[in-house]
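sanity check this record:

:::
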Amino acid sequence: MASRIVDREIQLIRYYPNYQTTLKWYQDLDLCKQVDNRDTAYDLDLLKAMYKYLDQKGDLFYIKYQNRLCGDVCLQPDGEINIVVAKPYQNKRIGRRVMGEIIQLAREKGITELHAVIYAFNRQSQRMFESVGFHRVDTEKYTLIL
């Protein structure tokens, strides 16, 4: 899958190993809590395993904002979406803008329902998903029918 242009500031870049950049994101304890409800940071082995799994299972991209990698997003064949925006780049509406492109990609692939698991305490992610049309269907599951 080729890279995709989101808007004049954001691109989705097809995944390639870049652990020097990405490990920093996953060593932020707040981000680890938001994403995986973990109280410990990722180490290199866990990061590699996560990326290998997501890359084999779905369409995995880095989020590039103003020419800097700042997160990643994966669309899985079953419609699950995983998205991470590094702490310094949060609250800039990057996730919302990226989600528009991921929704378009899902349509192109014939996926008719998207879903995301968001921890009950993660109001920031809940608001982001709701802002692009997702609805909570369970305590921690959000869906969007396309």
Remarks:
- The chain is about 35% helix and 25% strand.
